[in-house]
Each structure stands twice: as structure tokens, then as C-alpha cells.
Amino acid sequence: MKKRLLVTTATLCGLATLSGCGLIPVKTSNEIDPPKTVTYRSDQPSKEVQAGKVQEQTAKRELYLIDRNGYVVPQTFQLPKSTSLAKQALEYLVKDGPVTDQLPNGFQAVLPPNTEVLGVETQKDGTVIADFSSEFKQYHDEDELKVFQAVTWTLTQFENVKKVKIRVNGKNLTAMPINKAQIGEGLTRQDGINFDKGDIVDVMNSRPVTLYYVSQDEMGETYYVPVTRRISNAEKDSYTAIVNELVKGPSEYSELVSDFGSDTKLVAEPKYQNGKLTLNFNEGIYGNIAKNMINDDVLQPLVLSLTEQKGVTSIEIQVDGKLTALNQQGKPLSQPVSRPKDVNTKEL
């Protein structure tokens, strides 16, 4: 039986800060430690002014941490301005490191204590090489996949980073130190995160997709967890397959939930044009049919999951061919909804 989230509307309204059509317009960070031959644009860091004094400049960054259920989850933090953004992000993944006092309830950093980031090298082809001290090898064997997933997904938040290679004391790793998980020539988001433990699909005749499901921390606050699930190559339309998997819900073995109604269906094939994906649903997409509202915990996983697909930057949501839906705040979803820049933002 599919698990659904049972929370009040007031609690749901306490999700990530929203604007516009319910999610934040996309603006991808380009800041990273660039090679001399490549020039990247730079986001303007925030500058807080309080009591006539200029406070420390900060910028939002996603850190992939481990939640209480063992999932690798993005959390967005305001980090101090740094001249080495990739190196700084990795340093915030170290247990007992600078992130310690800022960890949300039930979360922990992933890299072993005392791990040093010896350097971060960026190549012109979009590959980043992260060099760690020997303490990097001192993780628990059950955390091996979590370690390289957290490193890979944290670094690939930067627009120009496509692949991540790992070194220890200057030596390239082709496999992880303990369980020998293969790294090969580098890791990308296509290598997956939080692998689904549900139905086994023929690996040779399937492909991975990233789906976002819902979880709650110890205080009942909602956040979104990326999960890699394989879908059959017989499913030619990845967009429809993703919607169907979201409606199906997470594996019964997981600690995750979904709030999609089981009667939610697409009434037409998805249409893609110039980055916009148009989805036409039946009324099953509504959490409150009387008010034509789509709940945040339906809308956000839908947008997050589909914008993981190459080229998709926004989602237009129709119901029976009309732009009549409202988001949970009562605002019309008359314009395409973009991926939020900051997933699971924590205001600290």
C-alpha cells in the first residue's frame, strides 16, 4: 500500500520558502574554483546590514548531508563568502567541522572527522578533482555510497561541473577504499543517489531517473529526498514514466512518503518545447478539488523530479487542458513553474 503524507495544511505551508507560481525561478550558481583558461560568471553574495554595520557576506550553497533515515539529502545553507567555493563546500561535509552547529534536526555530515580538503582542481571539460587527506578513508563501510554521492552531488550543484574525480593524498581513486565501489573515470549525477530498494529491474534494459519524495525531520518539518529508480527501456517517454513513478510512490521498504492521489493521471502526452514541459492532468492532481489547489508536497516533487531531466527548466501544469490550477497558497499556476534554486532551505 502506498504511503501518503498525513499533515495539516498549516504544516505544509511551512515548506521551503516559495515565490511567484509556488517555486523559485531557477538561477544556477556558476561559482567554483576555475582553471586559469576558463572564466565563469559570479553570483553576487548577499550582504546583511544590521544596526548600521555591514555583516559578513554570504552565499547560498547546497550541502548533501545524511538524514536520520540514512538518505543523502540536499540542505541549503548561507555560507560565508569564500575565494574557493568548491573547497569550502567540501569542508562543510566533514563531521565535527564548520557545519556542526548549523545541522538541522536529525542530520549529520558525511565525511570522516579530521578529513582535510587538500585541493580542488577544475578542468576545462567540466571535471572537478577533489583531493582529500588520508582520513577520507576512515568512513564506515555502510556509508561508502553515501560518501561519494554527497561529494558528487554537492560539487555538481555548480553549473560548469559535470563530473567529479576523487584523490587521496594526490593519488587518483578508481574505486572506493573499503567496499571497492567503482569510481572509474569520474562520477556524475547519472550514477545515482539513494538507490531505490523496491522492484528489481533488468539493469541492461532499463535507465535511471531521479525522483523526489517527501520526508519529515524529528520536529515534523518536511523536506525532499532524491531517489534513483530504474525504469524499463520499454517506457519510451521518460516524462510520463516519471509522473507514473511519483504517483506510484516510494518503495514500501523506504521511510519516504508521497501525497499524490492514486487516481492522478495524465490525460495527454507531455509536450516539450524550448525548456518548457507541459503536463495535462486529470482532477486527481488536486489535493483540494473544491479549491482547485495542488499541494506543495505534490507540486514540488513533480517539478524537482522533472527538471532533473536534461533540458527541462520549467513545468506548465494544465488540468483537463486548462490553466485553472492554484498552488497551495492560492496563487494561479498560469505560468510555467521553474525549479527552485535552493532545495530544503534552512534559515540560520
From TrEMBL:
The keyword Signal applies. Residues 339-348 have a biased composition (Basic and acidic residues). Residues 328-337 have a biased composition (Polar residues). Residues 86-177, 239-328 form the GerMN domain. Keywords: Signal. InterPro entries: GerMN. Residues 328-348 are annotated as: Disordered. Residues 1-19 form the signal peptide. SMART domains: Germane. Pfam families: Germane (PF10646). This is Spore germination protein GerM.
